């Protein structure tokens, strides 16, 4: 099923999700290093990764909602898409809570409680990513109807070389 929001022949949403997923996971890793070392530099990096990741997540979500709206109602894909979006929304809210609590702290530090909150958010995002894979790989959402191993570039008019 072709998605609504496309650029240069490809779905926009999957191109954007790599940034918030990577940034928020990296934030969690830097925060773990901060807790292990006590070095506030790692906490700062984690905080700013959450900042950028949250902005990227909102942008990716906009295109995800546009694409979800094109999935026919009453299909399993529509329900899977709803779970995918809802879980990503929950993960984002948890990271934003951690971000807000750290906003006015010196060094944007976190304690064990916020770290656990981030761990839960990363786990939820992982499940949401699985649902995203289910949408593409099982339901063909975002996959061109003419996709095959020798398909021409999406930048061409469809002629084979």
SSE blueprint:
Layout (H helix, E strand, L loop, with lengths): L5 E2 L2 E2 H26 L2 H31 L5 H27 L9 H26 L24
Antiparallel strand pairs: 1-2
Helix pairs in contact: 1-2, 1-4, 2-3, 3-4
Structural account:
It is a single chain. With about 160 residues, the chain is an all-alpha fold. The protein has one domain (about 5-135). It has 4 helices and 2 strands; from the N terminus they run E-E-H-H-H-H. It has a two-stranded antiparallel ribbon with strand order 1-2. Strand 1 (about 5) and strand 2 (about 10) form a beta hairpin. Helix 1 (about 10-35) packs antiparallel against helix 4 (about 110-135) and helix 3 packs antiparallel against helix 4 (about 110-135). The two termini are about 25 Å apart.
List keywords for this structure.
161 residues, mainly alpha, two-stranded antiparallel sheet, 2% strand
Radius of gyration: 18 Å
Which bin fits the share of residues in helices?
55-70%
Portion in strands: under 5%
Q: What is the global morphology?
A: elongated
Largest sheet: 2 strands, antiparallel
Q: How are the strands of the biggest sheet laid out side by side?
A: 1-2
Number of domains: 1
Instruction: Count up the helices.
Output: 4
What can be said about this structure in brief?
This protein has one domain (6-137). Helices cover 68% and strands 2% of the residues.
């Amino acid at each position: 099923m072709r998605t609504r929001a496309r650029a240069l022949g490809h779905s926009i949403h999957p191109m954007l999700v790599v940034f918030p997923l990577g940034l928020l996971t990296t934030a969690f890793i830097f925060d773990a290093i901060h807790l292990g070392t006590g070095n506030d530099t790692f906490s700062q990096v984690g905080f700013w990764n959450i900042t950028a990741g949250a902005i990227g997540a909102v942008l990716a979500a906009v295109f995800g909602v546009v694409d979800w709206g094109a999935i026919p109602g009453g299909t399993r894909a529509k329900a899977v898409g709803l779970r995918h979006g809802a879980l990503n929304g929950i993960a984002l809210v948890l990271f934003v809570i951690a971000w807000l609590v750290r906003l006015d702290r010196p060094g944007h530090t976190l304690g064990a409680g916020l770290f656990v909150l981030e761990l839960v958010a990363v786990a939820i995002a992982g499940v949401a990513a699985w649902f995203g894979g289910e949408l593409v790989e099982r339901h063909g959402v975002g996959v061109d109807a003419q996709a095959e191993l020798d398909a021409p570039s999406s930048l061409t008019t469809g002629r084979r070389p």
